[in-house]
Amino acid sequence: MISEEVMKIFTNCAKFFGEEFDIEMVDGGTSEICVDCEEDYMVGMAYIADCHTYKREVNLEKFDLARERNKMIDLYLSLLKFK
Asked: CB-based contacts of 48: which residues, under 8 Å, 6+ apart?
């Protein structure tokens, strides 16, 4: 689950700096998507970030991993200037 992993990272960073971390400190709430591998994890995080950035609801029922992966690939390829 993405939010559980991110919360662990935030908690460990806070401990490193001698600070406290609480989930209530996260603006915008959290979302969780079950994934099978690290690549899917990155795609899922990008989907959630995209939804929050453009103020769209995170809709896990409509989340399509292959579609979101293809959107990322298209974006990165569009940044390259092929001749």
From this structure: 2, 31, 33, 58
Local confidence pLDDT in tens for the 83 residues of the chain? 556 777 888 889 999 999 988 877 777 667 677 888 888 988 988 888 888 788 888 888 888 999 999 999 998 899 997 76
Task: Write the CA distances from 62 to 24, 37, 41, 57, 80, integer angstroms.
Answer: 27, 20, 17, 11, 30
The span from the CA of 75 to the CA of 57, in Å, is 21
Instruction: Sketch the domain layout of the chain as residue ranges.
Output: 2-79
Flag whether the pTM goes above 0.70. Answer: no
Structural contact between residues 28 and 49, judged by C-beta atoms closer than 8 angstroms: no
